[in-house]
Write a structure and sequence with these properties.
CATH topology of the largest domain: Aspartate Aminotransferase, domain 2
CATH architecture of the largest domain: 3-Layer(aba) Sandwich
Radius of gyration: 21 Å
Number of strands: 14
CATH superfamily of the largest domain: Type I PLP-dependent aspartate aminotransferase-like (Major domain)
Number of domains: 2
CATH class of the largest domain: Alpha Beta
Order of helices and strands: HHHEHEHEHEHEEEEEHEEHHEEHHEH
């Protein structure tokens, strides 16, 4: 480890270097929007929408202001009533459950699988009650949940499926019959975030909603635009959530590179896997047989209560790490009125104490990866 010299500060996500590789295209796209002065709902938004529809193989993409809005608008479009229950994993970012509570629905927080860290059909089925109306599977860290089983449960119980696809855009899910669909296009509605650090990230906030249902798409589009289908005629209570033209222009450039970005992230993950798989104190990420992984995060499970010690050890050597997520949603103060205090979610609670995400981005090189993995291994020497 001592003969590897790292001169630049190590980044969890290196957006600056990524920008430099596509700087000319990005700058030209931004200037084109500024010179057109079509800043809101301009041609670039419609162009990006059409290109994203083609990439995803989905009939309708509705761009919006951010990923949280995307989830909220998706739920608003389903006509749910206050008190209706929506099943959601407790091991996820707060936005997934936050919007459920915000709409006076009841988030039903469930445990996750210990290998993939996401929900399954079996877990969902146990949580269904007569009040259950929807399921929000979260495609965590870059691969799809086991969607075929989840869709089967949803169909049997007449439930809506809203995919939280903020971390897995570009991932493919393959069904048992050999057919495949892109993450976010499998359920009734899919949502995503274009937060800068995402695999397809803007240079500011942004999000989108996907569906193949024409009636749902019209309702979603109307809700996102103040509830109006025609200017100044408001059919429903909506909100104001839109993707600005500059962000759309940036995203349209980066969309062309999305598969290459996934390939680069997979090379990083392969390096980590090879270097760390023999360490007894670590569980490397599980790769779902029905879904390719786009590695939004490379998240290891650190055994024997040593996560925080490993994190401190790496930090002292200039290696940043992140914990996604340190506190499960069912333990958050904001949700104390929605969750039975006796609720036990053992896998989720174990993960919150054990997971650690290592640096992964499109600009990582082998020298940097060697430095990081040698540091991890030296912790266990």
């Amino acid at each position: 480890m001592h003969n590897i010299e790292i001169t630049d500060k190590i980044q969890m996500v290196d957006l600056k270097t990524q920008y430099r590789r596509i700087k000319t295209e990005i700058n030209e796209a931004i200037i084109e929007v500024i010179e057109s002065a079509a800043f809101i709902n301009g041609p670039k938004v419609k162009e990006f929408q059409a290109n994203l529809e083609a990439y995803l193989g989905v009939k309708h993409v509705i761009p919006c202001a951010n990923g949280t809005d995307a989830l909220q608008i998706a739920l608003m479009a389903l006509g749910l009533k206050p008190g209706d229950e929506v099943i959601v994993p407790s091991f996820t970012y707060v936005a997934t459950a936050e919007v459920i509570a915000l709409l006076q629905l009841k988030p039903i927080m469930v445990d996750v699988r210990s290998d993939t860290f996401d929900i399954s059909a079996e877990i969902i089925e146990k949580a269904i009650t007569p009040k259950t109306k929807a399921i929000v599977p979260v495609h965590l860290f870059g691969q799809c949940c086991e969607m075929e089983g989840i869709l089967s449960v949803a169909e049997r119980h007449n439930l809506f499926v809203i995919e939280d696809n903020a971390q897995a855009i570009g991932s493919d899910y393959t069904f048992k019959n050999g057919s495949s669909k892109k993450a976010g296009t499998i359920g009734h509605i899919g949502t995503t975030s274009f937060y800068p650090a995402k695999n397809l990230g803007a240079y500011g906030d942004g999000g989108a909603i996907f569906t193949n249902d024409k009636a749902l798409s019209e309702q979603i589009r109307m809700i996102a635009n103040h509830g109006q289908s025609k200017k100044y005629y408001h059919s429903v209570i909506g909100c104001n959530s839109r993707l600005d033209s500059i962000q759309a222009a940036i995203l349209d450039i980066k969309l062309k590179y999305l598969d290459d970005y996934a390939h680069r992230r997979n090379k990083v993950a392969d390096y980590y896997d090879s270097a760390l798989k023999e360490l007894n104190g670590i569980q490397i990420p599980y790769r779902h047989e029905n879904s390719n992984h786009v590695f939004h995060q490379y998240t290891i499970l650190v055994k024997n209560g040593k996560r925080d010690a490993l994190r401190q050890y790496l930090n002292e050597r200039g290696i940043p790490t992140m914990i996604y997520y340190p506190v499960p949603l069912n333990k958050q103060k904001a949700f104390e009125h929605y969750v039975d205090k006796a609720l036990k979610l053992p896998v989720t609670e174990m993960l919150c104490d054990s997971v650690l995400s290592l640096p992964i981005h499109t600009e990582t090189n082998d020298g940097l990866l060697k430095f990081i993995t040698e540091a991890v291994k030296s912790f266990y020497d």
